[in-house]
Specification:
Blueprint: H1 9-27, H2 34-41, H3 45-51, H4 56-79, H5 85-102, H6 110-118, H7 123-146, H8 153-175, H9 179-196
């Protein structure tokens, strides 16, 4: 008779992906070992290779794409209630600053952490991070365009906003301060206002 409390195959896989996400975010891709991931997931070591026969690189790609989709949904949820695109952008940065502080200045975004490590060494992971960033920029560009920013300015604005946020996270982590993110909030809002004004 099977144990009804035993985790399902799907649950085990999800735990591995979640553990990988958390560890890559905190200690980076190269700084994380597969045994650490298995321990954090509470899963047998061999199960990682059962689900991810391509090893750490395959798991890394799954983490990037899964996390990217989660953050894409978050971007949409944060922006949707606002008519004022500049205010929405500033408030999203303010919320991000709060998240950074809550995480004790660990990077809230595993995608950026992995991208910085592997851009020149692992083409599959580089492509995955690039595709995730493009999906964020596409969604944000559509949001700005709906608010009145013409193309191609909407995409340029979205790209600048994402670059500001990721750079502000890096500075905030280094300084152990939310000040860079809050300062970037003002700059991002100003970029959006200028785009809306056609400047």
């Amino acid at each position: 008779m099977s144990d009804s409390k035993a985790p399902s195959t799907h649950e085990t896989r999800q735990r591995i992906v979640s553990a990988g996400t958390e560890l890559f975010r905190r200690t980076g891709y190269t700084g994380t070992g597969m045994k650490q991931i298995a321990e954090a997931a509470g899963a047998p070591f061999g199960s990682i290779y059962h689900f991810f026969p391509g090893g750490k690189a395959q798991l890394g790609e799954e983490v990037i794409r899964t996390s990217g989709a989660v953050y894409l949904g978050l971007i949409t949820a944060l922006m949707t209630p606002y008519e004022d695109r500049a205010a929405a952008t500033a408030d999203a940065f303010t919320a991000a600053a709060g998240t950074l502080a809550e995480l004790d200045f660990a990077d809230p975004c595993p995608i950026a952490t992995v991208a910085m490590e592997v851009a020149g060494t692992n083409e599959k992971l580089r492509e995955a991070t690039s595709e995730v960033f493009d999906s964020w920029i596409d969604r944000l560009a559509a949001y700005y365009a709906e608010g009145g920013v013409p193309e191609p300015a909407a995409r340029e604005t979205a790209s600048s906003v994402i670059a500001l946020l990721e750079g502000a996270f890096m500075l905030g982590r280094a300084a152990r301060s939310t000040t860079p993110v809050l300062s970037a909030a003002k700059a991002a809002a100003a970029i959006v206002r200028a785009a809306l004004a056609g400047e």
